[in-house]
Hints:
Two copies of one chain form a homodimer. By secondary structure, chain A is of the alpha+beta class. Chain A has 15 helices and 21 strands. Chains A and B meet through strand 13, helix 10, strand 15, strand 16 and strand 17 of A and strand 13, helix 10, strand 15, strand 16 and strand 17 of B.
Amino acid sequence: MALLANRFSSALRTTGRSYPALSKLPAAGQRSFSASSRWQLHTKEMNDEILASLKVNQSRLMEDIHYTCQWGMGKKWGARSTETGMSRLALSDADKEARDWFMRTTEALGCNTTVDAMGNIFAVRPGIRSDKPPTFVGSHLDTQPTGGRYDGILGVTAGVELLKVLADNWVETEYPVGVVNWTNEEGARFPLSMVSSGVWAGSIPLETAHNLREIHPGTATMASELARIGYLGKTPASYESMPMGAHFELHIEQGPLLEMANKKVGIVQGVQAYKWFTITVKGRDTHTGTTDLKSRADALLTASKMILHSHRLATTNSALASTGILNLKPGSTNTVPGEVTFSLDIRAPKDSTVQRMAAQIKSDFPKIAAGQDVMNCNENCITGLPCEVSITEDFDSPATTFHPDCIAAVHQAAHSALGSNSHNLIMDMVSGAGHDSVYTSKRCPTSMIFVPCREGISHNPAEFCKDEDCALGAQVLLQSVLRFDRMRDERRVTWKQEPYTL
Amino acid sequence: MALLANRFSSALRTTGRSYPALSKLPAAGQRSFSASSRWQLHTKEMNDEILASLKVNQSRLMEDIHYTCQWGMGKKWGARSTETGMSRLALSDADKEARDWFMRTTEALGCNTTVDAMGNIFAVRPGIRSDKPPTFVGSHLDTQPTGGRYDGILGVTAGVELLKVLADNWVETEYPVGVVNWTNEEGARFPLSMVSSGVWAGSIPLETAHNLREIHPGTATMASELARIGYLGKTPASYESMPMGAHFELHIEQGPLLEMANKKVGIVQGVQAYKWFTITVKGRDTHTGTTDLKSRADALLTASKMILHSHRLATTNSALASTGILNLKPGSTNTVPGEVTFSLDIRAPKDSTVQRMAAQIKSDFPKIAAGQDVMNCNENCITGLPCEVSITEDFDSPATTFHPDCIAAVHQAAHSALGSNSHNLIMDMVSGAGHDSVYTSKRCPTSMIFVPCREGISHNPAEFCKDEDCALGAQVLLQSVLRFDRMRDERRVTWKQEPYTL
Lengths: 502, 502
């Protein structure tokens, strides 16, 4: 504050308004104020230079990241205490600890917290126009079973750091600013990704979400676990009960493109389209030693051809195809498997590409099961007895295009944060992964900020983002929110809470 | 007995010898004998006609099969009460019940029972030369987790039926006749097939076998389960403690060859060679949406290529290759698997073929893991990052050749049982599956009898062998044992208890 007061005295003003929420702020050692009169720095009175001087505290951010990673610590990959992965499944005891920290910390920073019926936690710091929907930043604190310390966690802790910077500098925003922790984004424990932002957006029925059963051991549901850890809130999980003025999400890229191109910030234009399928191949259990190749209906050999074929289709379509789960029955070395079930995840930037691939799969897999030669999959093979295949589409996420105003705010923020060489360090890109921002974008202006992670590795204990890249991302996030706040005021735009077309 | 006394009076004789074991026989309603003097029919005094007139009782055999299948009943596949599969894992409570039945029944038929340190149960009916090793028939009462009612069970119950026929007809054999139930033949619960005949033969150390850990849930060992169900016998599990004069095994073919060729009896010349491997492919867990195909080390795509390649090698080598188990990590729809482990079972009639295939696999799999194109596996694929592969040979079973004298006895028995058209109904064949006879053949003359099973299906609840085929097999088994008993006497051959070369 002392620094700001010196450098930007023109921006300082006395205000007689009372901010009950801000009065909860812990007394910063070097400052004291009377109860009735405070120095407040208003976003709409800041020029670009003042805005840019508001900076996140890198070491404090990293401390928050690693401090919260004590809950659900995973596999060690390096010598340092912070070099472990994470295994913080949604609504586990570890997740509860992280949530409690988030509630405690944001409340201490002057936020009002709300927990909705999906356990989503909204921490809102008041602004001048507190009747308007807050500008939110958000991500998730849950992880994959063998995840890392950055996926989701960076976005939430950067939001907390943003609140700390605003508090430290007594910044008063025109609109409220919120940080949201979305529940079960990963879909790793309860098998539906981004389910809670999906309910908020009205895209997934609450009942469907509440009834989701955990994958292992399969007894608890989302509703029972929300109740168990005390996060089954009374507020309806809905964009109507908790409207958002915007949603910004900082995230590691989870891919290698930024690193390979030597870029620092990805300005995310949207999210690629994807579909998830469950494929079941039924053949016949038979003895491996006594059944000649012609007399087999080998469900695993057939599934192997399908997995290879899906990769070939992805190659020819410039798309992605992946199988992450495969189970077979009965599971004995000397029994040819009679049943194989596997997941198939196909993605491409354009909806039309995903639709074309889905059609090819629906056409080709039954042919492969029947023993036909598709793209030479039967070369040097003996055709056995036919298998049956069933294909179920579990999830369809059309391509998402983010909001131009949010993208513009992130652009400005990135240039501000990166300085003179910024043009060489910024990359416009499309997200390969789904994020909660996919659902928020249906109900409010949304965009995302990517920072590079080592070798593009994610969903892996060794997932790693450099401290300076975490801080840079948080800085861009902070600047985006402040610039968007100013933009909202300048334009007096009220974005509709209905799905909009760009 | 009345029938026999009329038709073959020349074969009947009075004996003053006392057979304590036979005195345990339940009094057959229509017969009574003084304690000191009995009619006994001696095998060496029977001509071919008399021998052939000794017949198994088909309905009694089927009753034993289905009665014992009450313990460990599996999946229903048909409308009748007997149309279910079996799930009787070795040393389970259900297996204990079946074992108790076997002990009870064979003892009631005048046998002395011995349980060895592997829980193998030897039921021996005395003969005239009770100082000599018995002629055994044997198989196993354990099943696959999704097995059927005939694999193993037919061989043991046919042995019991054989004892009943001998008892009913007061047949006295020259050499003792035994029935053996081998423990954990399937290797489905404790992952080593034919482990207990292997210990008996001196091929597998007792300690290795005792320490085998069950696959699910993985806490019990063979030793702990043997003790728990009361079948940890004091007799050493060894061919030295329990020598065998011969070992005959009746089994369903578990393949389609007999049925396809319209044959009724397979005279098994030996068992094909096989090797079991565990293959581990290590790649890298990465996000399915954000990792382009070039940047992936996809362990499952690589494993799929290997499984397909092993099938192609089997095709070109006229051999078999099968994968029955596959596990992957971490197992999430949107994570490319970083680790896949799968089993590989390769088989061929000749050792040299199996060795050639093993060498090709050891040479080709690392190339496939490294991203090289082997037999066009990379056609239309994008080469990703290299994976690592490790190949462990778990089990090696060289080709087995059965004993010509045993094979000759089975030939005679089959011709006798099948009558005038026998030449059209018999097939010399090699077993595709391993059996306990592989190990017994290392220590005593051995051969096997196959009967057809429907569509060759085995290791499947719907495994099915017609009643008349079960009975025909049991009849050939009975005749083989009796003919071999006569052969032993005629030749006064004492087969060595050491491994022999044919």
